Amino acid sequence: MVEHPAGGYKKLFETVEELSSPVTAHVTGRIPTWLRGSLLRCGPGLFEVGAEPFYHLFDGQALLHKFDFKEGHVTYHRRFVRTDAYVRAMTEKRIVITEFGTYAYPDPCKNIFSRFFSYFKGVEVTDNALVNVYPVGEDYYACTETNFITKINPDTLETIKQVDLCKYVSVNGATAHPHVENDGTVYNIGNCFGKNFSLAYNIIRIPPLQAGQFNTFGLTPNYIVFVETPVKINLLKFLSSWSLWGANYMDCFESNETMGVWLHVAEKKKGRLLNIKYRTSAFNLFHHINTFEDNGFLIVDLCTWKGFEFVYNYLYLANLRANWDEVKKQAEKAPQPEARRYVLPLRIDKADTGKNLVTLPYTTATATLRSDETIWLEPEVIFSGPRHAFEFPQINYKKYGGKPYTYTYGLGLNHFVPDRLCKLNVKTKETWVWQEPDSYPSEPIFVSHPDALEEDDGVVLSIVISPGSGPKPAYLLILNAKDMSEVARAEVEVNIPVTFHGLFKRA
């Protein structure tokens, strides 16, 4: 277990300024000549407005980052996304729109009557697009988990316009991890409020002709898998206490101790739910690794956190900025991480009640048909370490998304602190690790070699901050995807705060 007593990870949660123009990075090693294009990343870059702090990791205002690769040279650029939340905060010099874990108080300059009536105008949902960037046709959008996505220019990082998904589909929010198929079709899952304060889920398909990956659902050529965890939004709380008593999104979540987890499978082409009820014990889930079909089974690989308590409870900035001993103490109380493989049988015979239905030779995962016709799933553990998470998984998505695969790349979290990059062979469970003292990387992005013959032929890109080790506090790291050895790094003279997700846009 690597220790971090110096607390350099706190620099991940510090406000930075945007850049007026790209800066040149200092390259050591040799950038592969075939690596041409841009790494686009999204994350929080403003952690307070004036004297008002944001409280949660998912509250800071969205900052878009770009590393450009051209003929062995690298430049770095960043700009804040001009969302309503950001523009209004800058104009009024206070937090105006309630974020995930931070309540926006009414304008203190207004009199008591106008403040009182402003409570009844309904919830203003944030458009703070800090989680991911993804393409729709020729266009690029930054997003969070609400119904607003923001069109951006991937070359200049300028904000073009806000798009409200509610105007096109019946959803109140959508995941920040859509799947983009090779023909450009975008799939996503959104939620909408149904009858009697229930929550329903809608599958959204955006065809490739309508020109303008954290996957929180699984997609194969024929099926869509959605994992329903025990953490739910209490709709009554969301609609009432929220506007009257100064609650935020975090206050509206509840954990159901007895529910466990349900997995729902829909047929992609017919758009209908399979009438098979898959159940397992409680866990939290942020990211799917991959999902594929094999011989009448669906194999679903997930980054789980064991138990029903909400992991987001541990991602308040006060926790993440604490000294190392305190960070460790908190992480020991939290749900524990484990990468798991679940196997879902698609053909069910009632005569098999009480039996394990999994017949695949390469997995120890089981699926037992119960007398109430539910199927109880037990996973195969593909990665586990005490308070060590394999998270923010990436694969060779273009060629192996939704298909049988061997390798996944992940960000290693040590008591919630990102301190290593990891490659995992999901078949043999062999791992390769890149790690350096006092260095804190981001989600690894796999970029395939243009003439690749093998699944792991390419490079892995990650933004690393290393506040204690020299004059340049951050760099882009390029690793050989086969053995996780360093190929090159491009150092910049500015700090780079935490980023969540992004993509490589080939030139």
Description of the molecule:
Its EC number is 3.1.1.64, 5.3.3.22. It catalyses: lutein = (3R,3'S)-zeaxanthin; all-trans-retinyl hexadecanoate + H2O = 11-cis-retinol + hexadecanoate + H(+); an all-trans-retinyl ester + H2O = 11-cis-retinol + a fatty acid + H(+). The protein contains seven helices and 37 strands. The chain is mainly beta and 507 residues long. β35 and β36 form a beta hairpin. The strands form nine sheets. Strands 16, 17, 20, 21, 22, 26 and 27 form a seven-stranded mixed β-sheet that branches. The chain has a five-stranded antiparallel β-sheet with strand order 1-7-6-3-37, with no helix packed on it. The protein has a five-stranded antiparallel β-sheet with strand order 2-36-35-34-33, with no helix packed on it. It has one domain (8-506).
What key phrases describe this protein's structure?
507 residues, 7-stranded mixed β-sheet, 5-stranded antiparallel β-sheet, 7 helices, all-trans-retinyl-ester hydrolase, 11-cis retinol forming activity, lipoprotein, sensory transduction
CA distance, first residue to last residue: 40 Å
- The tally of structural domains comes to 1
How helix-rich are the residues, as a percent range?
Answer: under 10%
Question: What value does the average pLDDT take?
Answer: 89
Main pleated-sheet profile: 7 strands, mixed
Q: Roughly how many Å is the radius of gyration?
A: 22 Å
Tell me the number of helical segments per DSSP (H or I, 4 or more residues long): 7
**Multimeric organization:** single chain
The residue ranges in which pLDDT falls below 50 over 5 or more consecutive positions are 114-121, 209-215
Number of beta-strand segments: 37
> Structural class of the helices, strands and pairings?
mainly beta
What overall geometry do the principal axes of the alpha carbons give?
globular
Q: What is the strand content?
A: 35-45%
